[in-house]
Design a protein that fits this description.
By secondary structure, the protein is α/β, with parallel strands linked by helices. It is built from 9 helices and 14 strands. A hairpin with a 5-residue loop joins β2 and β3. The protein starts with a strand and ends with a helix. The structure holds zinc ion and fe (iii) ion (FE). Fe (iii) ion binds next to α2.
Length: 240
């Protein structure tokens, strides 16, 4: 079983330290800043087996080469984006699995924010590492893919068990909540969730990971019924 701990890095990114309870095997997701990631690894026992990358943006990959060299870890990332990721030891695609000790992640191709974006889902532990595809109360900008790409990617997440922990790449929840309340003001679940988010942030606490069930109830992007609705929401958010 995998447990996931957020490691705050850069201004508002999260790297994720994953630990397999049975073996102590450890992985880090999107380690884009060396010092805080090394501190988190050392505090957890100084072992690192695997580096998992979600996509090629610098705020997700910077630091991966240096951390690989320091711990002798293997880097896994999207085969489709191998040309613009650090040199991959393990190149993966839809449906592939990556083992961390006795726990296994399933790779999901989730284009939209970038074309080669992937997510990792650990059924044992119920942990989803979704990078910049799904955010709490939001979704990634369409920098490379289309709204149809993003819609299909979000639908893959919507089909996971509702108690899945959503471990995304940024602490954007409070600003996402402002747009979500503007776009879907009558959603009572959103109103309640946004109030929780506000209280957490006022107390200086993270809002991530969130529960997929909360996103399914409150996140207008995940709730969009079709591509056209998602496209309209995304372009409205870009101008908000
Ligand atoms: Zn990104
Ligand atoms: Fe990012």
């Amino acid at each position: 079983m995998i447990t996931a701990h957020a490691v705050p890095i850069l201004s508002d990114n999260y790297a994720w330290l994953l630990r397999d309870a049975a073996t102590g095997a450890t992985a880090i997701v999107d380690p884009a800043e060396v010092a805080p990631v090394v501190a988190a690894i050392e505090a957890a026992g100084g072992r690192l087996d695997t580096i998992l990358l979600t996509h090629h943006h610098v705020d997700h990959i910077d630091g991966a080469d240096e951390i690989r060299a320091r711990y002798g870890a293997k880097i896994a990332g999207a085969a489709a984006d191998a040309h613009r990721l650090p040199k991959l030891d393990v190149a993966v695609a839809e449906g592939d699995t990556v083992a961390i000790g006795q726990s296994t992640a399933r790779v999901m191709e989730t284009p939209g924010h970038t074309l080669g974006h992937i997510a990792y889902y650990f059924a044992d532990g119920g942990v989803l590492l979704c990078g910049d595809t799904l955010f709490s109360l939001g979704c990634g900008r369409l920098l490379e893919g289309t709204a149809a790409n993003m819609f299909a990617s979000l639908q893959k997440f919507a089909a996971l068990p509702p108690d899945t922990l959503v471990c995304c790449g940024h602490e954007y929840t409070e600003s996402n909540a402002r747009f979500a309340l503007h776009a879907t003001p009558d959603n009572a679940a959103l109103q309640a969730y946004a109030a929780q988010v506000k209280a957490l942030r006022a107390a200086g606490k993270p809002t991530i990971p969130s529960r997929l069930s909360d996103e399914l109830a409150a996140n207008p992007f995940l709730r969009a019924p079709d591509v056209a609705t998602l496209a309209a929401l995304r372009s409205a958010k870009d101008k908000f």
